[in-house]
Amino acid sequence: GVEAMLRKAAGTNDFEAVVKVSKAANPNSVPEIDDLVAALNAGLKSARASRLATAGLFDAWSGRAELGFSATSGNTNDIGIAVGGSLKRDGLKVRHNLDGLVEYQSTSGTITQRRYLANYEADYKIYDGLYIYGLAGWAGDKFAGFVSRFSESVGAGYSAFDTGSLKLFLSGGAALRQTRLNSGVNRNVVTARLAAEFSWKAIDSMEFSEAAVIYLNSQFTSSTALTATLTENYS
User: Residue 48: CB partners within 8 Å, gap ≥ 6?
Assistant: First the structure.
């Protein structure tokens, strides 16, 4: 019965918890449980490698689309819209990440926010969590003082841990930024980029995530989210 339960849980976010409960309930069978867990993980890894090895250019992608809307009325009438999305492909050697966002807000008919951004990052895996990355991004935000800003960065990153339910990626490298200010002045900067991405899925239906990026002497951004899953495709 324990073996059947472990086999059914393998590959899910609950697998670690099921393993702990199984060991606690069957202390005399811990070595056998460890052997079975190792075999199940090896089987999952082998199946994933085989699937990715035969995947075509447009296969093995995953993604999400996001939509937000807000409206208030009273002394002022505010309308806010946010539309975003991301695509990811985690291959055997290369990991692709694309994301974009559009934000718009108006107050009593006057536009008070209009922001655009798009990023593409490619990570080439070297060894045991270590990778090198190349990133290109574009943003536009007149209310932040610039018409357009291009950013390019190359460097190295490390997957500190990736257990399925708990992930932490750290990266850093050199960066170039070309900004066209609202005044028409162009400003080019050579700087460094540091980034961290953390996610923790405590239970299947709830995930906490944090993404922080620092361009030294230039910009710091942080996005913190708590995502609750409503159905298989909506949250």
Answer: none
Tokens, residue 135: 């990133």
Q: Three-state SS for 39?
A: helix
| Helix/strand/coil percentages in the chain, nearest 5 | 20, 60, 20
Task: Supply the pTM of this predicted model.
Answer: 0.75
Q: Which residues are 110's β-sheet partners? A: 107
In the three-class reduction of DSSP (H, G, I as helix; E, B as strand; rest coil), residue 58 is classed as coil
Contact 94, 126 (CB under 8 A): no
How far is Cα 151 from Cα 176, in angstroms, rounded to an integer? 6
Dist CA 212 CA 98 (whole Å): 16
C-alpha 136/C-alpha 82 separation (Å) is 22
Sole residue written with tokens 């995502």: 227
Are 59 and 87 a contacting pair, CB within 8 Å?
no
User: How far is it, in rounded angstroms, from Cα 85 to Cα 63?
Assistant: 7
pLDDT digits (tens, 9 = 90+) for 150-187: 999 999 999 988 877 889 999 999 999 999 999 999 99
Q: How far apart are CA 188 and CA 150, in angstroms?
A: 10
Element holding 6 (H helix, E strand): helix 2-9
